[in-house]
Specification:
The chain has 191 residues and is mainly beta. It has an 8-stranded antiparallel beta sheet with strand order 1-2-3-6-7-10-11-14, with no helix packed on it. It has a two-stranded antiparallel sheet with strand order 4-5. It is elongated, with a radius of gyration of 22 Å. The relative contact order is 0.14.
Length: 191
């Protein structure tokens, strides 16, 4: 079990103002902002083969004094600072033969709404989402050689990692997406 509480007070935090009319960016300072938060994680081995883990992060981020693109953003949440992040996972390790073991792992994560602009525009935000990843790994008993069959974003969630309002160019929002469902095999050797 681990935990942390934190409080950060910022003066002149740098921010990039995006002008959608000219598609230009300008570096500006936000006079006063803050982040308060807590993080907790726990892991346990329930039996020899089975372990579980979970973590949670809680943030209260806020611009206390500031403007962006000429508008007051006091009281708005900071960019890329979700209020809640949560993850859980379960891992099973079992011998397949005397020389080969198998590890099966499934992990899930949740992220609350994320804003990508200091004005907290809903159109340029990522709605809350959950994600599921997993793998099955076969390795020798000392983990020198392994083959891992993996899949990320199993439920194929549409996840934005950045969004920019470019409405001047015809009701257009520029989006940067996280990878969709991906899968593969990784072979590894340690020498």
């Amino acid at each position: 079990l681990n935990g942390a509480l934190f409080n950060y007070d910022f003066k002149n935090q740098q921010n990039v103002d995006f002008n959608s009319a000219t598609f230009s960016q300008q570096l500006v300072n936000i006079p006063k902002s803050r982040i308060r938060g807590a993080e907790f994680d726990i892991s346990a081995r329930l039996i020899d083969a089975l372990s579980v883990r979970s973590s949670i992060g809680l943030l209260d981020s806020k611009t206390l004094i500031g403007t962006s693109e000429g508008q007051d953003i006091s009281g708005k949440r900071l960019v890329n600072a979700p209020e809640v992040t949560w993850s859980t996972g379960v891992s099973w390790v079992q011998a397949v033969t005397n020389d080969i073991k198998m590890t099966a792992d499934l992990s899930s994560s949740y992220v609350s709404r994320v804003y990508f602009d200091p004005m907290n525009s809903p159109i340029t935000s990522q709605k809350p989402y959950g994600k599921l990843d997993g793998f099955v790994k076969f390795s020798d008993d000392i983990d020198r050689y392994s083959a891992t069959f993996w899949m990320k974003n199993i439920t194929n969630e549409l996840i934005f990692v950045d969004r920019t309002d470019a409405i001047t160019f015809g009701n257009y929002v520029a989006n940067v997406l996280a990878p969709p469902r991906t899968f593969g095999v990784t072979f590894a050797g340690k020498f």
